[in-house]
């Protein structure tokens, strides 16, 4: 089993609140179906649930990926003795970190992993 970092309590509460709200909306759709409500109104509720689940999922992924990337950047900076040949790239990623979009986080994690691997090889040579 992987060693995951615990999520912040406020994030957990936020996501749980969102999921409880979504659960109520789902129950509302079931009731609407039972009562033969207008399909257009049911569709609106489905769209609302879809947006809600996407937002909760985004919050979770953003937190997990940002923490992981922050740790990886920190480890890579520590592994670079100051003359490793990748200082500029590492510093560039470190400076970009606060503004990275979720889609970019995984790409940057791969990049920092590759830099860290190079540094480990550099140390072993």
TrEMBL record:
In Swiss-Prot or TrEMBL terms, this protein is called Metal-sensitive transcriptional repressor
Q: Name one Pfam family in it.
A: Trns_repr_metal
Sorted alphabetically, which InterPro entries does this protein's record hold? Answer: Metal_Tscrpt_repr, Metal_Tscrpt_repr_sf
State the similarity comment.
Answer: Belongs to the FrmR/RcnR family.
The biological processes this protein is annotated with in GO are: negative regulation of DNA-templated transcription
Alphabetically, the GO molecular function entries are: DNA binding; metal ion binding
Top-level taxonomic group: Bacteria
Q: What sections of the sequence does the record tag as coiled-coil?
A: none
């Amino acid at each position: 089993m992987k060693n995951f970092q615990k999520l912040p309590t406020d994030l957990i509460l936020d996501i749980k609140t969102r999921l409880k709200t979504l659960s109520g909306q789902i129950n509302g759709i079931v009731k609407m179906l039972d009562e033969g409500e207008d399909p257009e109104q049911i569709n609106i509720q489905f769209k609302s649930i879809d947006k809600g689940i996407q937002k909760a999922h985004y919050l979770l992924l953003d937190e997990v990926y940002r923490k992981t990337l922050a740790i990886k950047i920190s480890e890579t900076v520590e592994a670079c003795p100051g003359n490793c040949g990748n200082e500029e790239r590492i510093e560039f990623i470190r400076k970009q970190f606060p503004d990275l979009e979720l889609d970019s986080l995984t790409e940057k994690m791969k990049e920092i992993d590759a830099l860290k691997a190079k540094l480990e090889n550099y140390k072993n040579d």
